[in-house]
Write a structure and sequence with these properties.
There is one protein chain. The protein has 12 helices and 14 strands. By secondary structure, it is of the alpha/beta class. The strands form 3 sheets. The chain has a 10-stranded mixed β-sheet with strand order 2-1-3-12-11-4-5-10-8-9, sandwiched between helices. Strands 6-7 form a two-stranded antiparallel sheet. A two-stranded parallel ribbon has the order 13-14. The protein binds nicotinamide-adenine-dinucleotide. The site of nicotinamide-adenine-dinucleotide (NAD) has 22 residues, from loops.
Length: 366
């Protein structure tokens, strides 16, 4: 097994160091190779996704990704901006299904901005389509308007589009994921206004005929945004397009207390994937040693489960994270009165220690 390690920018390098430490104590046979991506790659090679990094990602069985970006690159031409590396990797690796679980750990119920009773035991899965929608539709650009409310004025435009196969494959992924959970899919659209999402709704309904054991509910995106804060536990699997998924998954992230806790997986049709925390490079706290590494460590667990066929090792990491939280250790983003504030490295060390203890316990038991 080969894992491509792409730490990226900002807190990316700090949180990745902790995830790599955790992987190293698992006694699994795999090879890792690290490469530059994002702003760091632009500085060194003049491109956020150099050919060598892309080749490494293509050759690997899985990619563990930190985060990219910094405000200082905002004035670069779009193709050279760090975030283009993620879009490039998704495109070249054929990653179309983004899994974002939003789990509220019992120990963090009070870190959520919602009332504890609304989020206690929350475990939902947002599946976001990654390759289509208004993010990639052509044509797009700037021009002088020939019609509309202000003919002759400068305007910008994008194109929202989805093809039948794109909707079908993400719908299958959602129904299959729901079968392994509570058998309920909520498909989020804006079918009342957008042609693209009326088509989305029609195709999801057609695919549903193959999954009679799974309940399907359709919901408009504005209502979904509301229901996510009103009664989040009513959801099981949420499937939606690229833009709605981008927004709703960040909203769901906050239900759990901190975006620093949320892993994600982006999978291709053969379950090869790119695994990354749901957050960005957090330039505001980069270099301070205070970032929460748990989202990246939990992303590594997802990688072991989905792409590397090591579910037991994934379970061990998740149990170690729970043990560390139960012991009262918290990075600043999830800290509350009565818990112990620790830095990035201390948090990683604590997970490693919990894993080592669980291994000793297992050896003793056997
Ligand atoms: P962000 O997720 O980086 O940060 C949002 C807020 O959450 C900040 O206050 C930050 O300090 C905090 N935060 C994020 N991760 C944290 C962690 N692990 N521990 C503690 N606190 C954490 O989003 P942003 O500020 O909008 O974007 C910053 C940069 O990241 C931008 O350049 C953006 O384009 C980029 N970005 C990259 C990715 C990615 O690499 N996949 C995703 C989103 C944003």
């Amino acid at each position: 097994m080969k894992i491509a390690i792409l730490p990226g920018d900002g807190i990316g390098t700090e949180i990745m160091a902790e995830a790599v430490k955790v992987l190293a104590v698992l006694d699994l046979k795999f090879e890792t190779e690290t490469a530059l991506v994002g702003g760091a790659a632009y500085e060194a090679h003049g491109h956020p996704l150099p050919e060598s990094t892309l080749k490494l990602a293509q050759a690997a069985d899985a990619v563990l990704f930190g985060a990219v970006g910094d405000w200082k690159y905002d004035k670069l031409e779009r193709q050279f901006r760090p975030e283009q590396a993620i879009l490039g990797l998704r495109k070249h690796l054929g990653l179309f299904a983004n899994f974002r679980p939003a789990i509220c750990y019992e120990q963090l119920t009070h870190a959520s901005s919602l009332k504890p009773e609304l989020v206690a035991g929350l475990d939902i899965l947002i599946i976001r389509e990654l390759t289509g929608d208004i993010y990639f539709g052509q044509p797009r650009g700037r021009r002088t308007a020939v019609d509309g409310h202000f003919p002759g004025a400068e305007e910008a435009f994008d194109t929202m589009r989805y093809s039948r196969p794109e909707i079908e494959r993400i719908a299958h992924v959602a129904f299959q994921a729901a079968r392994k959970r509570n058998k309920k899919v909520t498909s989020v659209d804006k079918a009342n206004v957008l042609e693209t999402f009326q088509f989305w709704k029609d195709v999801v309904t057609e695919v549903h005929a193959q999954y009679p054991d799974v309940e399907l509910q359709h919901m408009y995106v504005d209502n979904a945004a509301m229901q996510l804060v009103k009664a989040p536990k009513a959801f099981d699997v949420v499937v939606t397009g690229n833009m709605f998924g981008d927004i709703l998954s960040d909203e769901a992230a906050m239900l759990t207390g901190s975006i620093g806790m949320l892993p994600s997986a982006s999978l291709d049709k053969a379950n090869k994937g790119l695994y990354e925390p749901s957050h960005g490079s957090a330039p505001d706290i980069a270099g301070k040693g205070v970032a929460n590494p748990l989202a990246t460590i939990l992303s590594a667990a997802m990688m072991l489960r989905f792409s590397l066929n090591q579910p037991a090792a994934a379970d061990r990491i998740e149990s170690a994270v729970r043990a560390v939280l139960s012991a009262g250790l918290r990075t600043g983003d999830i800290w509350s009165e009565g818990t112990k504030k620790v830095g990035t490295r201390e948090m990683g060390d604590a997970v490693v220690a919990a894993l080592t203890t669980s291994k000793t316990t297992m050896t003793t038991k056997s």
